[in-house]
Amino acid sequence: MLIRVIRGKIALMDFINEPFDIRLLPKAEDVPLTPIEKAYLLVIRIEWGISATVLLITGTVLIFSVKSLQHPVWIFSIFAGLIALAFGYAVVQTKSFSQKAYALRDKDVIYRSGWIVQKTHTCPFNRIQHSSVTTGFFERKYGLATLILYTAGTDETDLQIPGLKEADAYAMKEWITQQIIHEEQPGA
Amino acid sequence: MKNNQEHNWNIPQRQASAGLLVIVYKALITVIKVIWPLALVVIFRERNKNFDTFEMLLIGVPAIILIRSVIDFFYFRFYIEKDDLIIKRGFLSKKVITIPLRKIQSVHIEQNLVHQFLSVAKLTIDTAGSEKSEAEIDAISIYKAESFKEFLLKNEKIAKDAEQSGSREVEIPLIRLSVRDLFKLGLSANHLQAFFIVLAFGVSMLQNLEEIFGNRVITLIQESSSAIGFSIASVASLIVFVLIISVIVSIVKIVLNYSNFNCSETEQGFRIQTGLINIRQNFVPFSKIQFISWQANWIRCKIGLYMLEFHQAQNEQAKKKQRIRLPITKREYVTRLLEPYHQAVKPVAQSVHGIHKIYPIRRMLVTGLPMALLMAGLAFFWIKEYAVLFLLWLPYAYLINLVYRKKFRFYVSPEAFQVNSGAWGKKSKIAQWYKIQYVELRQSFYQRKKQLATLIIHTAGGKIRVPYIQLDLARAIQNYSLYKIETATKHWM
Q: Which domain holds residue B381?
């Protein structure tokens, strides 16, 4: 008896092992997410406009150069197909734009995207290898930027948060970098 | 053994001079691969007295490749500068590869027949992350290779924990394979895979022949095959023939890959050596293991044979080449190999979860139906109304997913989780929570409506998928893994 009590005391001094309640864990789903900038929708639209034009031109060239396609049925179905494709794509893009939202917590970053399949990535800072900010040509016109976070995960798709105000993106990158340095000290 | 001479790695080094032969051999293989159809043409067509451009090409191209590789050999240098490994190569286009020593993940020594004959080896150096700068030294004397490997890995060890640098390693042998084991492995291998290799080989041979001889071959084959006719006997004998070939091919593959298989445990990790002609040596440090999986196909399940794999932090390219699966002939081996990482979770699980009962129906509709319709549609042009038979794919898809759901289990324990799955066969994966890189929750329209989710757990060694679980459960798992990652004191690598 006595020995056990003593052992218990020693054990208690060595480490604290409180009962663990899984329900008390911080909940990622309760965090309000910030939608990305509205202006990004314009960027998406412009990029869509360009690719739709290219598609239509390709279709026209195809019809002009291939004799056997110069039949009303073919012409109609090719253009109908292309237009359906372009507008379907526009709908999907607009819908998924409204899904794109993010949140920074103390120790991780949450990013939600996708409309047909909604994806929520949560990536802890102590797993981020490095980060970068990129600005595409049209993004720059609207003062927007994309934040890219690289992890050691094997998927090619690293975490990319588009449609941030350029200043915000750099501030976030800076903050995350600080967190990474802060995190690395105890582990390494 | 004249092993212990200290090399000074700071001086730029060439490859072993015997290695010139290796280089020439490698170049010759490349040349032969490119040029053999051309050579056939020259040999088989009518004799031409003049020396024409075709033959010039035939001699010129290999000569250039050979000369280039020989020149490259003399311009190849590697050395250590401060904390970087530097490799300089190339004469026409110079290339300098710099690899920080602490970024080196693993070093592999490989020997093919020529290497063994000349007692040299090929050294491959793996780095972490997505950088594609893979470093290779084609020919280095085997003694040098061993000590260089030790040097590179020791360096990394010093960086991590200085106190252990001096200790001599003790090796405990774990697994060896008997001839009987090899035979069992060969017979139970996936013959379908071997079948497709045989098929692809046949088709590419046929294409090459066709390019050279024109349509003559094709008509010859057509004539002979129509002469036989499609009697049931001929079809049956063809199937038996292909089966026998496939079994032979898989046995040969197993014998080539797993002869001399030897796995042992050291203080730092597992050492694996395998191969009959191409001997591969692989060292798996404990700390680099991200998760462990073992699996068996239907036949192997029955005879208790498993293939175990250590999923390490490596880039995708290197992974495919260096991947070694450990044949497990006894159940105890799994327990033994798991020991340094984490024991099996199943017996100590605090909770067990399955996937939602709607799963088989959804899978049948979402993936099975389009597949069946596509196949039936394509087949219609070919076998007309019999194409309807392809719709039998639907009940098959339903049944297979039903079995999958029945067998799927997610075991949770405080430090690790285990996923058991498989429809025909069996597959188990074990991962420690803190090895996770990030967590992904996926929800389709349907899943959003029904409060279900698919959880994808990403590690540096690959991802683990848990489909169609209750949203609450998915979120609980997500929050728990985030908690474990963010409070982890151990580094994941």
A: 359-403
